Amino acid sequence: xxxxxxxxxxxxxxxxxxxxxxxxxxxxxxxxxxxxxxxxxxxxxxxxxxxxxxxxxxxxxxxxxxxxxxxxxxxxxxxxxxxxxxxxxxxxxxxxxxxxxxxxxxxxxxx
Amino acid sequence: xxxxxxxxxxxxxxxxxxxxxxxxxxxxxxxxxxxxxxxxxxxxxxxxxxxxxxxxxxxxxxxxxxxxxxxxxxxxxxxxxxxxxxxxxxxxxxxxxxxxxxxxxxxxxxxxxxxxxxxxxxxxxxxxxxxxxxxxxxxxxxxxxxxxxxxxxxxxxxxxxxxxxxxxxxxxxxxxxxxxxxxxxxxxxxxxxxxxxxxxxxxxxxxxxxxxxxxxxxxxxxxxxxxxxxxxxxxxxxxxxxxxxxxxxxxxxxxxxxxxxxxxxxxxxxxxxxxxxxxxxxxxxxxxxx
Lengths: 111, 290
Prior knowledge:
The complex is a heterodimer of chains A (111) and B (290).
Chain A: H1 2-13, E1 17-18, E2 21-28, E3 31-38, E4 47-52, E5 58-63, E6 69-73, H2 78-81, E7 83-89, E8 94-99, H3 101-107
Antiparallel strand pairs in A: 2-3, 3-6, 4-5, 4-7, 7-8
Chain B: H1 2-20, E1 23-26, H2 29-39, E2 44-46, H3 62-69, E3 73-76, E4 95-97, E5 108-115, E6 121-127, H4 135-152, H5 157-181, E7 189-192, H6 198-204, E8 207-210, H7 221-234, E9 238-241, H8 247-255, E10 259-262, H9 275-288
Parallel strand pairs in B: 1-2, 1-3, 3-4, 7-8, 7-9, 9-10
Antiparallel strand pairs in B: 5-6
């Protein structure tokens, strides 16, 4: 009884884990890489990536890769205007990353 | 003809002047006010959050981010304010986190614990971010901003040296006025429509219980019921609105026995007046609404 109570107290005292979705996007040459993880380090199980241009026009929709990493070719004209990357994962979390023309130029070695 | 030519020339000269000035981008109005006070006409202060938008959660467009990235100095509030700042690349050498100097005094906000997905039960903890509502902390932010401006804009160093004491004196006076004006509210529970006042409460010895109402909106029946329950439980008689609500909301709060005061945290630029004058008016209003 005491043992069970002690165990219950131990479990109750354990902190709940904290996690938030983290999205990071970068450009290398003509390829955009989107990395999606939780702050706990875990990779989300499925999710949707929306790629929008500077006028908020949807350019493409992609699946979050199995390892949380998704790559796609840099859309035409994006180097001039930038890209907005929005990610929704199946577990109710969402986040975004903004790639500006400066970021893209840096990734292309032209900045 | 001559008049038109003179206007054109003055516009060209004005544009050239604006282009020559170093740019300080800020994430909220208090920092914009400090930058304006410190730099005067010698700096251009960029605070691009549109009117009516909450700068804490505002998401800039790509063109706005591009403009911010080009600024000579990007003044962050820190304490998690302006979530967009962690969702793009900002040039590290041109960033100043104005509250970093007192980060050990940040207030952790209540976490929301829920369960879904493979992580099981988890929480979303946060940090109270309206740091400047403790006016002594605001003064520390002004000092950090001044130092960063001097580092990035050495040509303005003398001007900033001359302007800083006046900013600090104004904030110290505001701090003292607030302490004195609100002393009678200590020991009483105050209700607030939104959790913005954690640092304000701590600095001035107030007990503020916050709701989660939308700024300026008419609360629904469930929200009124919640307010009544909390008022009954705490004996509160003062209700702080983050933004002016519809008149009907003020009437209803009055019927419930609550005295309403509108106290904007001034995260955005006020329609008239400046940080100091508006804040002074609000503090005086709260002090007299007992």
